[in-house]
Amino acid sequence: MTQINPREVASEQLKKICDKLGIEDEVYEMLRQHERIVIVKVPYHTPDGKLHVTVGYRAQHNSALGPYKGGVRYHRNVTLDEVKALSMRMTRKNSLAGLPYGGGKGGVVVPKEVIEGARKKHDPARIKTMEEISRNYFRAISPFVGVDLDIPAPDVYTNPQVMARFLDEYQRYTGQKVFGVVTAKPIELGGGRFRGASTGRSTAVAAREAANALLGGIEGKTVSIQGFGNAGQYAAKFLAEFGAKIVAVSDSKGGVYDPNGLDVEKLIQVKKETGSVVNYPGGKKISSDEPLFLDVDILVPAALEGVITKDNADKVKAKIISEAANGPITPEADEILVKKGTFVIPDILANSGGVIGSYLERVQNRIMYRYGAEREKKEIEKKIVENVKKILDRKDEFGGDGRMAAYAIAVERVVNAMKLRGRI
Ligand code: GLU
Asked: Domains of the chain: which residue ranges?
């Protein structure tokens, strides 16, 4: 597979939309460049007592609309370019969602054995290492984050427990009992009650709305899901609730397929108990990537970026793709899909429930009042329904390309804010 540089992809997509909207090159340059990049040293000890040093990043892309906002990812392959690209996407995502936020993203290079030991095997020694990494990373970036400056949240391989460590470390560092500096915290520490379900909810609602408009409804429509972490699980759960039929699901170990439909509750239970959906009783065993190419109505890529490329886009048969993952489709693959008539609900809309949930959490932290899960769920629903309609209304301006329609709305709003501020 050709190596894809995520920062170049994010820039390329931005350039494409700027050209289409007649935005000048110098404004494109202002939109592309990051305002600040923080790179920090993160020391930690392995269970044998040995000291190691890894690296952490926080990319602060654009703050025209408000404080930087976006998750922190832990992965052995995290690179600065990846974090930069993801923060550019956050600027667009937050803008499209109409949130008072700019875009930011963080990442820490964390060895696989630490992540797997802590997350899957619940090994106390690895959990300790993970905690040390979380605290040391957050202390190092603490001068650059804040409730009105930059508000981190989870992303790939981070979760509410990691957010709890971030919060605690920040409060120790500042001596201030500020809660809204990190979102998607455990509920006991001020986390939004619906935050855990919010990313998958938006992916499912977006798919439902698109299916209603383009396929005559969601009832009985077939769905395949690649990736079965938090977002994939909740997307499956809500799509099943809407009456869709989940026929295939996979994770990094492999997948399972049953044209008659899979039992989502069982899948979630099997994943929780055994670590993988491959242990689901029944169905046919398939590879991790196979859900991408099955003959289904709706595809949900919910794993990592760059899984649908120019080399395999031709094989995609789904009519609608709702991107739970960030950046699962490369720009060249996008062109192939648009030509085929596949409707893609881009990540910045399909998974934006996560950051909308984060926004609602921070609002509640600031006013020291709990809205409750129902209100959070309703507010997310409203924004997603409106935004799917907006991109369906504008997609023809962009040759049927839903991603470009979404980018147009997002970029126009950022450009307007930058103009009002006199930055461009
Ligand atoms: N990491 C998530 C995203 O990519 C959530 C960000 C947030 O809640 O700030 O949208």
From this structure: 35-191, 196-351
Q: What is the mean pLDDT of residues 56-65?
A: 98
The single residue listed with the structure tokens 């962009």 is 398
Rg (the chain; Cα; Å):
20
Q: Say whether 196-351 and 35-191 share the same fold.
A: yes
Residue-wise burial string across 97-121, b where 16 or more C-beta atoms lie within 10 A, e elsewhere:
bbbebbbbbbbbbbbeebbebbbee
Strand partners of residue 55: 41
Give the global pTM.
Answer: 0.97
Higher per-residue confidence, 305 vs 1: 305
Average pLDDT on 357-384 reads 97
> For 35-191, which CATH superfamily applies?
Leucine Dehydrogenase, chain A, domain 1 (3.40.50.10860)
Q: What are phi and psi of 415, to 5 degrees?
A: -60, -45
Q: Is the CB of 211 under 6 A from ligand 1?
A: no
What are the residue numbers of the active site?
A: 105
pLDDT of residue 81: 97
- Residue 47 corresponds to which tokens in the numbers above? 């269970």
- What would the 3-class secondary structure string for 240-285 be? HHCCCEEEEEEECCEEEECCCCCCHHHHHHHHHHHCCHHHCCCCEE
Q: Which atom of ligand 1 is nearest to the CA of 89?
A: 4
pLDDT tens digit string along 223-243?
Answer: 999 999 999 999 999 999 999
pLDDT for the residue numbered 121: 79
With a 6 Å cutoff on the Cβ, whether 301 touches ligand 1 is no
> Bridge partners of 336?
none
What architecture does CATH give domain 196-351? 3-Layer(aba) Sandwich (3.40)
The pLDDT, as a whole number, for residue 3 is: 63
Which sign, positive or negative, has the C-alpha torsion 183, 185, 189, 195?
positive
CB-ligand 1 contact for 96 (6 Å cutoff): no
For CA atoms 90, 387, 9, 398, the dihedral sign is negative
Q: Give the C-alpha separation, 259 to 283, whole Å.
A: 8
CB 201 within 8 A of CB 302: no
Ligand 1 atom closest to the Cα of residue 71 is: 1
* H/E stretch holding 70: strand 68-75
